[in-house]
Design goal:
It contains nine helices and 43 strands. By secondary structure, the protein is mostly beta strands.
């Protein structure tokens, strides 16, 4: 009843605000806009009216024929955002998952696809994702509090950025010191052992023409327990696994969920004996409930930016730890061991040099080295791994060297030509097989194919060092004439593993008048599978005496990239100086989907396979599996509706329809998995009295189908459907002085118990991925400019 009540409240508030434009008074416009306001941000930050991520050169947002959304550093601080997913929660059409998984950290869904995997994330215009990973890991380790602004570009952008930019681009642009010194710091504590510290300081050294501007920043985040251990339904029941895999259930005529301790005792079966006979050896818990303990999470970050004339040097050192079992079935994985963790570190040093040779000719050079290491003590907390007493060790490593040269040329006043050449060489050790002891880090030697001594039973299975290159050439033309703006680009990527990929993008904008404009765009993209997808491997010793092995997962080196195409049609209307409206139609189509495939192990390739269990899972392209998503999105934003209390709001409503053709001509699903058919987001802010600020963030989601749904019949089974939900987050601050604020944040005010994005998309996922319960935090913010 509670959910229905607040759903009605959300719709009522949304409807009320839709009527507000009629009552709006004329005043100066000073809010962020979705493609098209004359001012992008507040008058205090008029120096960032332009964005750079959409076209690789600075453009006024009102002149871009693409869907762009910008969150400024002022908004990040004002609303208490600490992580990228905090920011994304109110970005139109985005669904977030906090937590997501051990491998990816927090996750988000953008236009039906997992943004960690299919969105290009940049820090200061340079990619931050290690090439060995399937997606970018997200926690509090990215420099979000240190951002001057974050730019969100919707739609395929492979014509500019290459692989991974399938549904969009996110560019975190950090604050740079100018003439004045500045400092900012936050200190927060909260329930369940939450603590967060961060700082940023900047200034200049030297004098005259020899001035070095510097920015120094860092953060520490800890949470002793994620508070996601809900006992709703059968989520932590290990027998739920057999509903997804009925062929593995060995009690005919009886549903797995009908079995409990009372049922067993009634039928003369000892519950512990049932556990011993049907569960893995290291399972902890009762027949229907796996034991859970605290699920900790933490991250660390340090960064330094140095700017001397036209040269900028960036250094980032980021690390995080998550519990590896998040969202996974208690049949296979354990929540009883809080010391298990998935930990990693990313270090990156990057150089940017730009030069204006004349008013018509500019160049920009980017060079970066990115080093990623999985902590070799990272342990999966599993119930099946007999060698490691319920824990198995994993490891992966990446070394990416990236070079890029951009040239911008203005032959005439209203024509811009941007061209570029990039080269990347990558050394990878994809995630290893699960090991009984930590990986010896000396056995990975970058840019070589060195392998460690072979395992006595399965040799070098799961140890796959590889070096590959990617060369790209791209060009883009931007033409602005009167009411028309047109951009067209093309990029060719030659990858030493996947071969050649060519992707175009074309977009146009027509201004009907000063207040209204329409836009349209089309583009294609590709998602090159990471080496961890290609070489996904798992082998377990079945019989140490006979040296036989079970291979649950085997690699496939013949995978090719997934292919995407995207269409957009948009309309924007600046209703008044205070209110703007944006309406968008979009569609995505995906082909050559990479999915898990069940087959049998080839005994010639894997000679030690046990005869009793030859089944394995491997990733393949399903050429006959196509996904299509169509969406309608409307956003309405207003600022200073009631000047005396500085009332403003952002309302976004997204409605989608889609279908998926299953592989092997198994049928068509008239839904797009993971994507709610309705997303409503409403942010309301005000200052009811001087120095007191409130921000209310409302989210209403429709229901959606699980990431893993094995067949067409599953869509008639409520077990595979995650219910919709309503949540409210509250942030309030009070200005104690010009430089000091105190604040309180309440996440999930009504303690809604709901699901996020499935962590793996495989049959080992829980019924739903439980999300953060109510959490109250408070702290202080210091800021000096």
């Amino acid at each position: 009843m509670k959910k229905e009540k607040f759903s009605f409240l959300f719709i009522l508030i949304s409807y009320s605000f839709l009527a507000l434009p009629v009552l709006a008074q004329e005043d100066s416009f000073n809010q962020r806009d979705v493609l098209g306001a004359e001012s992008l941000i507040s008058p205090k930050e008029q120096n960032i009216q332009e964005v750079i991520s959409a076209s690789r050169s600075s453009k006024s947002i009102e002149d871009l024929p693409l869907t762009v959304f910008v969150v400024t550093g002022e908004e990040i601080h004002k609303n208490g955002y600490n992580s990228l997913v905090d920011v994304l929660k109110m970005v139109p059409g985005i669904k977030v998952s906090q937590p997501g998984s051990g491998e990816l950290g927090d996750m988000f869904l953008m236009r039906g696809l997992i943004g960690n995997l299919y969105t290009k994330i940049l820090v200061n215009g340079i990619p931050i994702q290690p090439s060995t990973l399937g997606g970018i890991p997200l926690s509090y380790q990215l420099p979000v509090r240190q951002a001057e602004r974050i730019e969100f570009i919707y739609g395929t952008s492979a014509a500019v950025y290459g692989a991974d930019a399938a549904v969009g681009v996110i560019n975190i642009i950090t604050k740079q010191a100018a003439d004045q010194s500045f400092a900012q710091a936050d200190a927060e504590i909260g329930q369940f052992g939450y603590s967060y510290l961060n700082f940023t300081a900047g200034g200049k050294l030297g004098n005259g023409k020899n001035i070095v501007n510097y920015t120094l920043y860092g953060s520490m985040y800890d949470r002793k327990d994620l508070n996601v251990k809900y006992r709703d339904g059968e989520n932590y029941n290990p027998l739920s696994y057999f509903v997804v895999n009925p062929d593995d259930w060995n009690i005919p005529g009886l549903s797995p969920l009908d079995v409990d301790e009372e049922f067993l005792r009634t039928n003369g079966i000892d519950p512990q004996e049932f556990i011993n006979n049907n569960y893995f050896p290291f399972y902890q818990g009762t027949v229907n409930d796996g034991t859970t303990n605290n699920l900790p999470q933490n991250s660390r970050m340090f960064g330094l930016n140095l700017k001397y004339k036209n040269l900028t040097v960036y250094f980032d050192d980021m690390s995080r730890k998550d519990h590896p079992s998040l969202g996974k079935s208690t049949f296979y994985y354990s929540f009883a061991r809080p010391n298990a963790f998935y930990g990693e570190n990313i270090k990156r040093i990057a150089l940017n040099y730009n030069q204006s040779w004349s008013t018509k000719f500019l160049t920009e050079t980017n060079i970066s080295y990115l080093r990623h290491r999985l902590n070799n003590s990272s342990t999966l907390s599993v119930n099946y791994f007999s060698e490691g007493l319920g824990s198995s060790f994993i490891y992966s490593a990446t070394d990416d060297i990236f070079l890029e040269q951009l040239i911008t040329y203005y032959p005439i006043n209203n024509l811009e030509i941007v061209g570029g050449l990039s080269y990347q060489i990558s050394s990878n050790l994809p995630q290893t097989n699960e090991l009984s002891e930590p990986f010896n880090i000396n056995n990975y030697q970058p840019f070589t194919n060195h392998r460690p001594p072979p395992h006595p039973v399965f040799g070098n299975f799961g140890i796959n060092p590889i070096t590959f290159t990617n060369i790209a050439l791209f060009g883009q033309v931007y033409y602005n004439k009167g009411k028309f703006n047109i951009t067209a680009g093309l990029r060719a990527d030659e990858n030493s593993i996947y071969g050649l990929s060519i992707n175009p993008r074309i977009a146009g904008l027509f201004k009907l008048n000063e207040e209204m404009a329409i836009r349209a765009s089309f583009g294609t993209a590709f998602k090159a599978p990471s080496t961890s997808i290609i070489y996904n491997s798992l082998a377990v010793v079945f019989d140490s005496i006979e040296n036989t092995v079970v291979y649950p997962i085997t690699p496939n080196t013949n995978i090719k990239p997934e292919r995407f195409s995207s269409y957009e049609l948009g309309y924007r209307y600046k209703i008044s100086e205070k209110i703007s409206f944006d309406f968008l139609l979009y569609s995505n189509q995906i082909e050559d989907l990479i999915k898990g495939h069940v087959t049998n192990v080839d005994p010639e390739e894997y000679p030690n396979v046990t005869p009793e269990d030859t089944e394995t899972r491997t990733n393949i392209n399903h050429s006959d599996a196509t996904s299509f998503l169509f969406g309608i999105q409307g956003t309405l934003s207003a600022n200073e509706l009631i000047e005396s209390i500085h009332l403003g709001f952002d309302l976004a409503i997204t409605k989608t329809e889609g279908f998926e053709n299953l592989e092997g001509n198994e049928g068509r699903i008239n839904d797009f998995r993971m994507m709610p058919e309705f997303i409503g987001q409403l942010r309301i802010s005000c200052e009811p009295v001087n120095k007191l600020y409130f921000n209310f963030e409302n989210t209403l989601m429709g229901s959606w189908y699980r990431r893993y749904t094995p067949n067409l019949e599953s869509f008639n089974n409520p077990f595979f459907e995650n219910k919709g939900f309503y949540t409210l987050d509250l942030f309030t601050s009070y200005e104690l002085s010009e430089n000091l604020k105190t604040f309180v944040r309440i996440i999930n005010v009504f303690d809604e118990k709901y699901g996020g994005i499935g962590p793996t998309g495989l049959d080992v996922d829980m019924i739903y991925n439980p999300q953060l319960g109510r959490n109250i935090q408070f702290g202080f913010n210091f800021k000096m400019d």
